From TrEMBL:
NCBIfam families: infC. Belongs to the IF-3 family. The keyword Transferase does not apply. IF-3 binds to the 30S ribosomal subunit and shifts the equilibrium between 70S ribosomes and their 50S and 30S subunits in favor of the free subunits, thus enhancing the availability of 30S subunits on which protein synthesis initiation begins. Residues 88-172 form the Translation initiation factor 3 C-terminal domain. One of its GO terms (molecular function) is ribosome binding. This is Translation initiation factor IF-3. The lineage of its organism: Bacteria, Pseudomonadati, Pseudomonadota, Alphaproteobacteria, Sphingomonadales. Pfam families: IF3_C, IF3_N. Its main location: cytoplasm. It comes from Sphingorhabdus lacus.
Length: 172
């Protein structure tokens, strides 16, 4: 039966290499030693022998407290996950015959979303006979493109999907 797969670095008796390069708890290089010898030296100091670079030849091991090492690695991973920004797609809906003031309000929101690092999907919905005047919608989307040229780039050019015209902007 195979032993269960453990996550994290190998340490003490889990190290499979016969010889390892050893670094003590002060950062001093002790040279290449037999693994058993290195484990014994680490135990004398009250620490574990932890494999920090398993792909090196020979593998590099350090005298560390394995519990503290795993705890700090977990904290570092949690901090990295917390500070990571996920890019969302925000949607702005308009009509082809939108009034100037309404347009400006929508553009403020677009600028705000782009500044936060989100993508913006602009949806232009046509109703009834407006569908016969798709060039008005295209002009409106070109105006949006011109107004956001400094902060955003077009990810998906304007295209029709049924009764809607869509365009996606993303931060530069």
């Amino acid at each position: 039966m195979t032993p269960p797969v453990k996550s994290g670095p190998r340490y003490n008796n889990l190290i499979t290499a016969e010889k390892v390069r050893v670094i003590d708890d002060d950062g001093e290089n002790l040279g290449v030693l037999y693994t058993r010898e290195a484990i014994a030296q680490a135990a004398e100091v009250g620490l574990d022998l932890v494999e920090v670079s398993p792909n090196a030849d020979p593998p590099v091991c350090k005298f560390l407290d394995i519990g503290k090492f795993k705890y700090e690695a977990q904290k570092k991973a949690n901090l990295a996950r917390k500070s990571q920004k996920t890019q969302e797609i925000k949607e702005i809906k308009m009509r082809p015959n939108i009034d100037d003031h309404d347009y400006m309000v929508k553009m403020k929101k677009v600028a705000e979303f782009i500044e936060e690092g989100d993508k913006v999907k602009i949806t232009l919905r046509f109703r009834g006979r407006e569908l016969a005047h798709q060039q008005l919608g295209m002009q409106l989307l070109q105006r949006v493109q011109a107004d956001t040229a400094e902060t955003a780039k077009i990810e998906a050019h304007p295209r029709m999907e049924g009764r809607q015209m869509l365009m996606v902007l993303s931060p530069k």
